[in-house]
Amino acid sequence: YQCDVSTGDISWILFSTATVLSMGPGLALFEAGLLRSKNTISIITQIFSGIAILSTMWFLFGYSFSYSEKDFFGIIGDWSNFLLMGLSPSECTSHALHVPSLLFSVFQMMFAVISPLLMTGAFAERLKFAHFIFVIVLWEIFVHYPLAHMIWSSNGWLYKLGVLDYAGGLVLHCSAGVSSLVFAIILGRRRDFKVHHGEAPPSNLAVTALGACFLIMGWVGFNGGSALRAGPVTVSAVLNTQVASAASGVVWIFFSCFHHRKPSLIAVLNGLISGLAGITPASGYVTIQSSFVIGIVLGIGSYMSVILFKHCLKIDDALDVTSIHGVTGIIGSFAIGIAASKQINEDAEDGWIHGNPKLMAIQLLGIIVSLVWSAAVTFVIAVVLRRWMRASEKTELLGMDSEFMEKRAYELLPALDSGSGQEESERIGGGVVSPRPGSSVQGDEDEEDEDYDIRVVHYGSTENGAYQV
Fold first, then answer.
1. Which of 58, 419, 12 has the alpha carbon at shortest distance from 221?
2. What is the residue-averaged pLDDT of the chain?
3. Which residues contact 425 (CB under 8 A, 6 or more apart)?
4. Which of 90, 183, 281, 360 has the smallest count of CB within 10 Å of its CB?
5. β-strand partners of 432
6. Exposed, middle or buried by CB within 10 Å (0-12, 13-18, 19+), for 34?
7. Which of 403, 320, 306 is nearest to 38 (CA)?
């Protein structure tokens, strides 16, 4: 292979790497705001700890397992690039001809880091911290590294078959999405799932919106940088990313207003991220017009998927990772088989609408392998750790922060008197719990959870009427 390293390409990939790295903190803020305040520090700690652990793993052996020239049956690499040995700050690799091999490795590190952390939204508010570490380490080794090698490495067997995945629809979103579904089913529902119909009240939507800003900005580098150079494919990928995200967001706005008669910030953000996740595998292969249509389909598919999994099947995927990442990853990956165009990316193949229906079958094979591999490995991990990994009911009630973290996110202040003179308050652990106006302070043996003011603290009532934090 012939290297063509340029300072312009290096600058673009360095910038893209920085934006993708910011998606980790963005994910932490996004999820923390959507969860209840008693679980804020635990979810942020999980994600930042994951960034540190997964980055270290990538340096030690992750890159080697994913991209080494020598491998085992086209499934996973060997130890040839242990500690990133053999990589250069000036010479390219066969995987990226326009940037140094060390820069390629650090850019791909960002993908390896964010992939398992997507699942935190599925098992939020009930997975112990120590077992979270076990989950992401095992999942990274046995799911992400093999899929990255099979699909992205030039020696991978799916790569040789012609499976296309521009920036991670199969390697990241499909795998994390189906794994989230498996974990949600095996872990079971949160204790108050029925009370909130799976939609526990968020603690801080402003923080969620701030996290979404980092995610949306990071996706520009996520998809634009995956061209591994600054060129025409980069331009198409960036614009396709924005168009599909916007189209999906509009769909979610419409459905939200239709069902609830008012707009929802959560719906807007989920719609935008659904479009971003779904267009990821196709963004460097399709036309702008195709990306618009794909974005509409992504919005419809992800919104209906939330209704199916959470409200019909009662599966407690806390933040709908299965729908927003898994379902959209499937749609976007299959859309390549329909709409891919060599005019956009000469390294791709034409899809069905351009005269090559065979690509649909190839993409379908890639989707099936990604889903089956990820689900099977995740099932084994979850079953082995099942007995110990879920927090106790008491811990769920008090919050993960109180049991596993040293600090809380918010210091609770005394509730203000509403003026009705009927509310009672009880100081617990430096905070105050208060029933909503009009709610009873007497216990009811048929009702485990009262509708209390979650902005202060969530609690239930016992049979004798005492408050239980």
1. 12
2. 89
3. 414, 415, 432, 433, 434
4. 90
5. 427
6. buried
7. 403
